[in-house]
Fold:
Amino acid sequence: MSFILHPIDTVDTISPADFKKNYLDARRPLVIKGLTNNWPAREKWTPEYLKQVVGKKVVPLYDNAKADPAKPINSAAAEMPFDEYMDLIMSQPTELRIFFFNIFKQAPQLLNDIVLPKDLMGGFLESMPAMFFGGSNSVTFLHYDIDLPHIFHTHFGGRKHIILFENKWKERLYCIPNATYALEDYDVANPDVKKFPALDGIEGTEVFLEHGDTLFMPTGYWHWMKYLEGGYSLSLRAWDASPARKAASLYNLAVKGGLDSVLKMAFKGDYARYREKLAVKRANKALANGKPR
Structure:
């Protein structure tokens, strides 16, 4: 046995009352296939169109390699003009991906092509829509977002494989101390539970997004993503209404973001090895204690 992955709830449309009761308040993920039916972007945002509006802007690129302990988290592996990168991901497999790209700074007119789902919930961070691009074989490592937003993640292009876990499993997932990502030494799609026994029996949700689908990811959800074909996604972020959740977000940004980066740069490999050993120790302890209950 390994992970126990359940299919995700999927709807074409949903009423605000149903969404609030069964998904937002319950913090359950959901795919809404028709959320973008009234978005010009659904048909308009072809690779050729995006190349036209962004052009030769040089963008940082990331790969599937384990993070270098001597560098800050999310350090780029390469860079390339955007139009050349789009040609690459749409024509052949590559690990290279674009992470958290504010495409709207380059092409503000693209904002006219999307519609924030304010009928479903409030609190959207309208200044922070971001896009993610990847070729087939590119993977986003297992993590949860440090600022703890709710996320509406809309995909364009080829299929995208996503695995989600509730935050209650974080110790069993070998969460790195003082961070919001997991030990990068296991394959989330096919974990070795003999080597990483705490993973055995963890329950999660499996998702395959297609063009135009929107995934609602509640605050604090762990997510791992793999592009099965070249494509790109837009994330819209919204604050949780809970004051406690907002306080937790600020804490994460200060401690798990700022302090962690300082320690990582100061102690490099020694700090990385210490944290990895501690992650394993905590995972084994949680497994032995039968957590989470």
User: Anything to note?
Assistant: The CA atoms of residues 44 and 190 lie 36 Å apart. DSSP finds six helices and 14 strands in the chain. The chain has a mean pLDDT of 92. The chain has one domain: 4-288.
